[in-house]
Amino acid sequence: MDLLLEYHSQLLAGTWMTVKLALVSLAIALVFGLLGAWAKLSKNRLAQRLAGIYTTLVRGVPDLVLILLVFFGGQVMINELGYATGLWGYVDISKFAAGAATIGVIFGAYFTETFRGAIMAIPPGQIEAGVSCGMRKSLIFRHIIWPQMVRYALPGFTNNWLVQLKTTALVSVIGLQDLVYNAFTAGRSTGQLFTFMAAAFVIYLMLTGLSDLAFRALDRRYSRGVVRA
Amino acid sequence: MSVEQLLAYIPLDVALIAANFDRFLWGVWMTLNLTFLALLIGGIIAIPMAIARASNHRLWNPVIWGYTYVFRGTPLLVQTYLIYYGLGQFTVVRDSWLWDPILSSAWWCALIAFTLNTAAYTTELLRGAIIDTPKGEVEAAIATGHSYRSRMRRIILPSAFRRAIPAYSNEVIFMLHGSVVASTITLQDILGVGRWLNGRYYLAYEGFITAALLYFIIVFAITRVFRWIERRYLRHLTRRSEPTPSVELAPSPIR
């Protein structure tokens, strides 16, 4: 316990890094998710096909494989491109950027399905009603689709976020100083790995537990007008 | 055009991958045996836990809920580290008879962590399937004189297992994805071999891309098998006008 207090700043810094990484990758995932859902539901064959390839590919390969591929392969690729075109010199991609981008793109595929399902759950009659009133596409999206989509997407959203938060732990493998990495190094240098890993375990549990509570409150708020069986 | 010319278009050292392919096959074996043993053992212990949860057992329900909550709320990586790196901190553990054959071995620690993890998720999804049993089916079973045990065995569980198939196919794919954690505790699973290859020959792509392809093939095969299982066991749920509901490659992480 004394050791945990002694190393508390390292643990806190790691926790903050984990939270930051999760939030940044969430923002990226939301953008990819919305784009993906839009592409999958559009009438454009090419867009549908591309979105299909994206979700299938990303979900067929484990997260860590992609993280390592982007971090090590991406580094080489960017530098070879820079060398070949002469546009930029040697670039070091940051662990944070590589991790956030990869996890964001991966979870974008899951959010694509969440958003697609949520949009499809909206009765088509409502959208037709919007069209017949002369509403433009953007207006239909803002006034009819978006407010309901949020509610339908919330359970899937909660799930994705919790999985994503836990997935960020993998970024410690490429050496980003997140909660796992910091707990591990502190545990290794003091010879008390169990104590420190247990501390990380409890912190993750608090993070997921808090998110769970927050989303439950949101869910109550957004489904206020709904009668549940 | 010859094969050599074709290969020249691929910016990867295909010959090197081919030369080390037997290692990758061992990696596939390692990944598959860890994943499926964990799924098997975890699945077996999940059944009684799910029943206890679904029937609101006064003692076991809160205990098992606590277990599943904790294991579903933390990363598999941390669980694995806690067991593999953590337990060695205690002299009691290091001196016990369990240490030498089991707790000091990375493979056993990975198996224990994966099993505990998948058991937690499987318990919850089975519980959901059990409490979703249509009330009429249970009432009919009571009316025909089934006891609690035979009701469970002959009516509730068979239909709950069927209802759990789509969600379980997700769990199987997630366990496979999660098994890459084994490579972080020195095991030579598919990713472990990929990392070894890249480290050994100082490469950036070859090992990871080969690993990615192998995982993709396995995920594809798993979805195919589940599609077949669903067609067979969920036929009664198919709408006549629509084609069979199929599992896509892991629709969304139901975790």
Automatic annotation (TrEMBL), chain A:
It is found in: Cell inner membrane; Cell membrane. It is a multi-pass membrane protein. SUPFAM superfamilies: MetI-like. One of its GO terms (cellular component) is ATP-binding cassette (ABC) transporter complex. GO terms for molecular function: transmembrane transporter activity. Keywords: Cell inner membrane, Cell membrane, Membrane, Transmembrane, Transmembrane helix, Transport. Residues 15-215 form the ABC transmembrane type-1 domain. The keyword Transport applies. The chain crosses the membrane at residues 20-39, 51-73, 93-111, 161-181, 193-215. The keyword Methyltransferase does not apply. InterPro entries: AA_ABC_transptr_permease_3TM (IPR010065), ABC_transp_permease_HisMQ (IPR051613), MetI-like (IPR000515), MetI-like_sf (IPR035906). It comes from the Bacteria. Coiled coil: none annotated. Belongs to the binding-protein-dependent transport system permease family. HisMQ subfamily. This is Amino acid ABC transporter permease.
